[in-house]
Amino acid sequence: MSLLSSLRREAREAPASGIVDVVNHGRTRPGLIPLWVGEGDMPTPAFIAEAATRSLAAGETFYTWQRGIPELREALARYISRLYGKPYAAERFYVTGSGMQALQIAVRMLVGSGDEVVLPTPAWPNFEAAIGIAGAKAVPVPMQLSNAGWTLDLDRLAGAITPATRVICINSPANPTGWTATREELAAILALARRHGLWIIADEIYGRFVYDGAERAPSFRDVMEDDDRIVFVQTFSKNWAMTGWRVGWLEAPPALGDVIENLIQYATSGVAVFIQRACVAALDHGEGFVAHQIARAKAGRDIVCRGLAATGRVRFAEPAGAFYLFFSVDGEDDTRRLAIRLVDEANVGLAPGSAFGAGGERFLRLCFARKAEDLEEAVARLARALR
What we know:
By secondary structure, this protein is of the alpha/beta class. It is built from 13 helices and 15 strands. The termini are far apart.
């Protein structure tokens, strides 16, 4: 028996990232404009980093609360209460070592071998991977692109539910499509989950990145009751330019607290205090920076949509939320090969849509959370290569 064959099937069959494949092809190329991963080009603001520095100088380098320091959980409650216009208790919030760990914990709590998770696609590939590693099965529900943009067929979503279904996973605003559910769609999805006794894993990480003048996107918080079976996964990465800090949070009913605490304990034993102090600063003093990021992303969206539409070869829906353009190119079906070619010929890094599951195969994803000069140059290079 080989070493690999002796491993658990779920670990052995965990899919390789189609995004990393392209990144590795072009990572070291001089002058490449990297628009392939989900982060901007701005470093973490100084006021956030300085909070961590002060904590380190004060000697806060010891083990700490598994659920998160009280100050951060209270700051999360203040932030969410203000943003969603109703009071939330600190007991609902649990600090995790990244949004990815928040997702892993949510999945581990709710599903295992033989269970199914209904997942609208195209979707961030880590959803399906986390579900598979837990021994469960992701059941894709492909969304459709029309002149009205990306849409989720709620009847098709309902039709994907079987006796094995335990969870519906909803990402809105969505990575990679920018699809943003309306309040009415979220209410319908919640009614479906209630009717079948299902949990919802809600990824609203891009909820601040909307471009219609609203402060935030519609949320399950707008339509839910306190006892609804919803777990929210969140991260500090996007709003506050903290991708490298690896810190996020779970929001869940307090009744789940002991279970979540145990799962944190047995994974990482908590998040470093100095990182959590930085997060408090981000939540309490970061609104100006968040507004700047959103305005910058809106300008970036306009640049890439206008520039790529002018080529006459691309098809897309202008994204209502998140900070990605998901577009297809006429006559190009193998988007992994196309992404490699665009690295070689345009020196621009894009993510192949095949990495995002059913319905994404003919598309490319471009992250427009970057300075205008880079995006103008990237679009010019892409236009030349696509012609």
